[in-house]
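User: Show me a protein chain along with its predicted structure.
Assistant: Here is one chain, sequence first, then structure tokens.
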Amino acid sequence: VEAPLDYVFSQLSDPVHLGRWTLGSMDYQPSGVAGVHVGTSLFDGTKSMVEIRPYPELWMIDYLVGSVETRIPRVSIRLVAGQDWGLAERSCIAAMTTWRAGFMTDERWARTRTTHELEVLLFKEQIETAWKAGS
């Protein structure tokens, strides 16, 4: 991602920004439970609850998905400074990890994988565009 590590981390930790690129849970709104947001799936209109747990000391973010009562870590993003990998100083690498829940059919898992590939492209482009506009 061609933007500074700390900027990318802040964007990926922010539910307002998150709700612009997560196709399975768009337009996050506070749920009434501290730290938990609810979004709407573009696929079937269902609601999902997401808790964002940023770990700035690790440059990692866990996204816990489920209900108000129970959420499990389903997605994590880890960032590393681009310069550590021979890339531009004001860039970073974002790696997304997604876990397959036991209840997911092969069809649902294929949709999740495809969706997440697109979501990475979306957040990359949105963050780079915002950074260039503001810098």
